[in-house]
Write a structure and sequence with these properties.
By secondary structure, this protein is mainly β. It is about 5% helix and about 45% strand.
């Protein structure tokens, strides 16, 4: 599967952005999706994950209550709505996909691990100014 992320940009603190990640292929619902981010000089970190449409979601503590992950199976797209942005949210945001191998939703620890994902988008830059 190929992933194309978009929606990044420059926004003032307190503002909002919505990131999109369009996936190729006809088996979108077979994939669990995640968003990660990487700030300059830092390791890539987990942001949010969604296992299936209308299914389990997970969030990093740093974004809980501000960010919302969702997916639209008709559009093969996963979204990350980001509200109340702060300069600490500045990073390149990556979407990722992994094929689900179980009818049971994976635990948060697995969904939050970069090593769990097989496919990665190219990243989209989010810059939050103070």
């Amino acid at each position: 599967v190929q992933l194309q992320a978009s929606g990044g940009g420059l926004v003032q603190a307190g503002g909002s952005l919505r990131l999109s990640c369009a996936a190729s292929g006809r088996t979108f619902e077979s994939y669990a999706m995640g968003w990660f981010r990487q700030a300059p000089g830092k390791e890539r970190e987990f942001v949010a994950a969604i296992i299936r449409s209308g299914g389990t979601t997970y969030y990093a503590d740093s974004v809980k209550g501000r960010f919302t992950i969702s997916r639209d199976k008709a559009k093969n797209t996963v979204y990350l709505q980001m509200n109340s942005l702060t300069p600490k949210d500045t990073a390149v945001y990556y979407c990722a996909a992994r094929r689900r191998t179980s009818v049971v939703d994976a635990p948060r620890s697995f969904a939050a691990d970069t090593r769990s994902y097989t496919y990665w988008g190219q990243g989209t830059l989010v810059t939050v100014s103070s």
